[in-house]
Write a structure and sequence with these properties.
Layout lengths: L4 H13 L7 H15 L5 E5 L5 H9 L4 E5 L14 E7 L10 H10 L1 E10 L24 H12 L5 E13 L2 E12 L2
Parallel strand pairs: 1-2, 1-3, 3-4
Antiparallel strand pairs: 4-6, 5-6
Length: 194
């Protein structure tokens, strides 16, 4: 992930200080990922890009014990080394909205470079109720990029659309109630053709 050093340190401190941060992945994307893996028998390797503490890996292995799960997150010391190669499924959930805006396109390209077959993104499109308490974004919302789901679809197409192997397989605008408030998410599933 393309990330500035001061921001990486702030994320590392947040992950270390807030035990619950990054644990919601199975809630937001678990069902989608189980369906993707079940319907595509060729998926054997998964890269969880922005994995937090790796809870999604535990969840997936609970359903698919033979899945080869790899986590990557520059904000968690044990997962901060970006793996090489391609993976059958690259997934990001609650990640892209946290990317520094000037690094977004490079991050999307980096994820696509590691995608062997399917790229899954689940992106929050509303502010959180939490602010950064340190680092270059102190006082700002943890979601550095807050855009409508259609904006995210257009951005993915803008960044990856020139690649003839890129194809948007499915996209959804998901609305959920959270503490009485309606929140939006973008789900974008792309496939590498050929």
């Amino acid at each position: 992930m393309t990330i500035d050093k001061g921001y990486q340190e702030a994320l590392q401190h947040r992950h270390e200080d807030v035990n619950t941060w990054g644990k919601g992945k199975p809630k937001y994307c678990g069902g989608d990922l189980l369906a993707i893996i079940q319907s595509r028998g060729y998926i054997e390797t998964v890269l969880d890009y922005g994995c937090g503490k790796g809870h999604l890996g535990e969840y997936l292995r609970g359903h698919f014990p033979n899945i080869q799960y790899t986590g990557y997150d520059p904000g968690v010391r044990e997962f901060q080394k970006l793996p090489e190669g391609r993976f059958d499924l690259v997934t990001s959930s609650d990640v892209l909205e946290h990317i520094e805006p000037h690094n977004l396109d490079a991050t999307i390209e980096e994820m696509w470079e590691r995608t062997g077959k399917v790229l899954y993104n689940n992106i929050a499109c509303t502010p959180t109720s939490n602010l950064f308490t340190e680092g270059p974004y102190e006082g700002q919302d943890l979601h550095l990029i807050i855009e409508e789901p259609e904006w995210w679809l257009d951005r993915m197409q803008m960044v990856l659309g020139d690649d003839p192997k890129y194809s948007t397989y499915e996209w959804r605008h998901v609305r959920r109630r959270w503490h009485g408030e309606l929140r939006s998410r973008a789900v974008i599933i792309a496939e590498r053709l050929g």
